[in-house]
């Protein structure tokens, strides 16, 4: 199936961000595991799997549209050194992905590629309502409880 090159470019940009999110979540989850923060490890390892699923959907759609998935161009991976910084880096990446998704959704509507738009809307819902919301909650808990109490709750 042929599509607009702009849609494939937008999907490849998103793919680069999802792959970066995978890498970032993977490293952060391993750091949490190493520190004994098992609840954070489990949740961030789950986020890694979600991002892997997002990347897979994007690759499938790029291929369906006759494009070539670009696995070499990725967004910046930001690895934190302490918990609040790690959570903030993850949240910032989710915000960036949400903006890219909104731009790509608008492009798909302009090009009347409603199937791709529908796929991206599912990813946007997951990004905003699950990933970003949970990260915002964690940073809010750190602010309300203080870092030591928060960390104790994550053991």
Automatic annotation (TrEMBL):
Top EC category: oxidoreductase
GO biological process terms on file: intracellular iron ion homeostasis; iron ion transport
Residues that, per the record, bind Fe cation 3: 46, 50
UniProt entry keywords in alphabetical sequence: Ion transport, Iron, Iron storage, Iron transport, Metal-binding, Oxidoreductase, Transport
Matching Pfam families: Ferritin
GO molecular function, one term: heme binding
Ferritin-like diiron domain: residues covered: 1-146
GO cellular component: a single term: cytosol
PROSITE patterns for this protein: FERRITIN_LIKE
Catalytic activity, as annotated: Fe(2+)(in) = Fe(2+)(out); 4 Fe(2+) + O2 + 4 H(+) = 4 Fe(3+) + 2 H2O
InterPro entries: Bacterioferritin, Ferritin-like, Ferritin-like_diiron, Ferritin-like_SF, Ferritin_DPS_dom
Gene3D superfamilies assigned: 1.20.1260.10
E.C. code: 1.16.3.1
Organism domain of life: Bacteria
Positions with a binding annotation for Fe cation 1: 18, 51, 54, 128
Binding site for Fe cation 2: 51, 94, 128, 131
Similarity comment: Belongs to the bacterioferritin family.
Function: Iron-storage protein, whose ferroxidase center binds Fe(2+), oxidizes it using dioxygen to Fe(3+), and participates in the subsequent Fe(3+) oxide mineral core formation within the central cavity of the BFR protein shell.
The protein's name in its UniProt record: Bacterioferritin
Organism: Nitrincola tapanii
Gene this protein is translated from: bfr
């Amino acid at each position: 199936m042929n599509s607009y090159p702009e849609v494939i470019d937008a999907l490849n940009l998103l793919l680069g961000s999802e792959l970066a999110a995978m890498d970032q979540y993977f490293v952060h989850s391993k750091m949490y595991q190493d520190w004994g923060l098992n609840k954070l490890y489990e949740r961030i390892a789950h986020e890694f799997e979600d991002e892997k699923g997002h990347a897979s959907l994007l690759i499938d759609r790029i291929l369906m549209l006759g494009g070539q998935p670009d696995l070499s161009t990725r967004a910046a991976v930001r690895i934190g050194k302490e918990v609040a910084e790690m959570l903030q880096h993850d949240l910032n990446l989710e915000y960036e992905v949400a903006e890219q998704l909104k731009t790509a959704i608008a492009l798909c509507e302009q090009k009347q590629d409603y199937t791709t738009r529908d796929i991206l809307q599912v990813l946007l819902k997951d990004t905003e309502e699950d990933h970003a919301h949970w990260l915002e909650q964690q940073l809010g808990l750190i602010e309300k409880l203080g870092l030591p109490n928060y960390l104790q709750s994550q053991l």
